[in-house]
């Protein structure tokens, strides 16, 4: 008879496998991403990720505080100065038809749950500041930025899955994908920790100022 620990591991493995299959079939299926990440929360890689991000300046304090911003009001943000983060973020979401609360809220109040929440919560802010677009290859570029910044397990999974998909289904796009991964990782390694920022308290700050303070050079458009 299986112990409760072995049963948990088996369930998490099956959940991860199911999520990977669903993700390969439909890369835009966000719920599959959350399924995979939530099933990996007890792995050694995830624990190392938590230790890594908390070692970065300012991140441990945010995690310990469980900093929780108020709900996003896109209409209010569209009234911010046009060069501000708030305006750029709200414009990006509005034009793309994205919901700022698209993410699944992790269950629990431990450090892992909070870090998962904060990364999901600020995902589109990272898009705006790095200048990575929203198509599949650009998303993988942002995952490379995330990987450098956080060692997030899910980022590595998505990068690996993206490379496999390109090799088998879209080999003509492999060069662009590799370029985005390289650009994103270099940018993430150079920039100051995004997880240490309370973006929501400084919506009026210009995007250019944020980038200068954090050492972010927005990604240029890929040219073959």
From TrEMBL:
Top-level taxon: Bacteria
GO biological process: ubiquinone biosynthetic process
Pfam families according to UniProt: Coq4
PANTHER family per the UniProt record, alphabetical: UBIQUINONE BIOSYNTHESIS PROTEIN, UBIQUINONE BIOSYNTHESIS PROTEIN COQ4 HOMOLOG, MITOCHONDRIAL
Name used for this protein in its record: Ubiquinone biosynthesis protein
Highest classification ranks of the organism: Bacteria, Bacillati, Cyanobacteriota, Cyanophyceae, Oscillatoriophycideae
């Amino acid at each position: 008879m299986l112990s409760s620990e072995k049963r948990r591991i088996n369930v998490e493995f099956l959940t991860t496998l199911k999520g990977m299959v669903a993700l390969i079939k439909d890369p835009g299926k966000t719920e599959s991403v959350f399924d995979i990440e939530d099933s990996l929360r007890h792995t050694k890689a995830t624990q190392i990720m938590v230790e890594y991000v908390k070692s970065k300046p300012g991140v441990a304090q945010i995690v310990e505080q469980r900093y929780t911003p108020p709900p996003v009001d896109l209409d209010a943000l569209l009234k911010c100065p046009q060069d501000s983060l708030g305006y750029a973020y709200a414009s990006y979401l509005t034009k793309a038809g994205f919901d700022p609360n698209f993410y699944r809220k992790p269950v629990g109040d431990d450090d892992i749950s909070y870090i998962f929440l904060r990364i999901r919560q600020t995902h589109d802010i990272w898009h705006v500041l790095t200048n990575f677009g929203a198509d599949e290859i650009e998303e993988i570029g942002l995952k490379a930025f995330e990987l450098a910044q956080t060692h997030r397990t899910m980022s590595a999974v998505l990068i690996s899955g993206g490379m496999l998909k390109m090799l088998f289904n879209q080999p003509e796009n492999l060069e662009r994908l590799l370029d985005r991964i390289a650009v994103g990782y270099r940018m993430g390694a150079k920039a100051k920790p995004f997880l240490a920022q309370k973006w929501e308290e400084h919506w009026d700050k210009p995007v250019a100022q944020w980038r200068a303070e954090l050492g972010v050079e927005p990604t240029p458009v890929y040219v073959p």
